[in-house]
Amino acid sequence: MNNERQPATPNPLLQLENQLCFPLYALSRMITKAYQPLLQELDLTYPQYLVFMLLWEHQELTVKELGEKLLLDSGTLTPLLKRLEQKQWITRRRDPRDERSVIIGLLPAGQALQERACRIPESIAARLNMSKADFETLRRQLNTLLTQLA
Amino acid sequence: MNNERQPATPNPLLQLENQLCFPLYALSRMITKAYQPLLQELDLTYPQYLVFMLLWEHQELTVKELGEKLLLDSGTLTPLLKRLEQKQWITRRRDPRDERSVIIGLLPAGQALQERACRIPESIAARLNMSKADFETLRRQLNTLLTQLA
DNA sequence: TCTAAATTAATTGTACACAATTAAACATTG
DNA sequence: CAATGTTTAATTGTGTACAATTAATTTAGA
Fold first, then answer.
1. Does the complex come out with an ipTM higher than 0.90?
2. Least crowded by CB within 10 Å, which of A25, A114, B4, B78?
3. Boundaries of every domain in chain B
4. B100-CA/C6-C1' distance, Å
5. CATH fold of B41-115, please?
6. B146 and A20 in contact by Cβ < 8 A?
7. Which residues lie across from A62 on neighbouring strands?
8. What is the chain A residue with the closest CA to B6?
């Protein structure tokens, strides 16, 4: 395109490359996209993979707990979990001691996915051309910002 | 929940807190959420705001150029841009020199949004408890990773 | 030139993401 | 114990995201 005409007031604060938000937003999507071919082999989406990472560690979690850990609400989780239930990878049942809560549990097929997922983290790490130290520093910095906003 | 039962093979590589992807994914959403109340006053969503940041700078861009800069495809941009067109904030027209291309232009009402958006970046920066140096370092690191993956 | 290949948007279908509302179950308090 | 308020999921509606396909146009090659 012709970019001859310049804006009346070029405001560097309103330029994409000077923001933190944009590279964060774009990088998040690019990383998700990098997982996609690996997750496709397991018939998983990226948010579904995150749910399983938690279930593989804890076996059982309520929707509320999943939401707290993933910072997602029931409007996102409920349909996602129903899809996983339909595939017979997880169970959804009300907590008999508190009928408001829904407990999500792992079925054997869901548990079995873990073995196949084992290589994914290293495979992604290899793609990121970073030293282990840089990786750790960045991870901690992002987590600090995250707790600051959440 | 009862987390008494432990997994057969607790794999630290498959734990959320050891990933880079998760804080990136969550932080990206949290930052978008931090923009939301500010953008709501302008009747804008976050991706729409990104489109306007580019249009305020360049006046006119094709859908292809917007997609390259934002790393978004036409399946995302076309409906988003049609909504902005309906609000009379932008124009969409075919390039007469290449009828395949669609040129997006700013209408006065869309241009006028810029003045109201001016305070948003500082307002967000104030929320992030970071030094200017840390901000810059992080921004550059994210951009490096971004170009590495894109 | 005429056709095959490439480019560009749009469309279609699936899956998040989240605000707002609803409804059921539980807790609290007078 | 009854009324009120709180917690928890589910539902509804809007708006991204993106893979895959389609259609129109342009470009390049024989």
1. yes
2. B4
3. 41-115, 118-150
4. 12
5. Arc Repressor Mutant, subunit A (1.10.10)
6. no
7. A103
8. A58
Question: Any atom of strand C under 7 A from CB of A62?
Answer: no
pTM metric for this prediction: 0.92
In this complex, the residue of A31, A146, A148 whose CB is nearest that of residue B21 is A31
Residue B102 contacts by C-beta under 8 Å, 6 or more apart in sequence? B62, B63, B92, B93, B94, B95
Contact between chains at A54 and B13 (C-beta distance less than 8 A)? no
Kindly give the confidence (pLDDT) of every residue in chain A, 150 residues in length, as a single tens digit, with 9 standing for 90 and above: 443 445 555 688 888 888 899 999 999 999 999 999 999 999 999 999 999 999 999 999 999 999 999 999 999 999 999 999 999 999 999 999 999 999 999 999 999 999 999 999 999 999 988 999 999 999 999 999 999 888
Task: Tokens for A52, please give them.
Answer: 């399983």
Residue A103 contacts residue A95 (beta carbons within 8 Å): yes
- Alpha-carbon gap, residue A91 to A87, rounded angstroms: 10
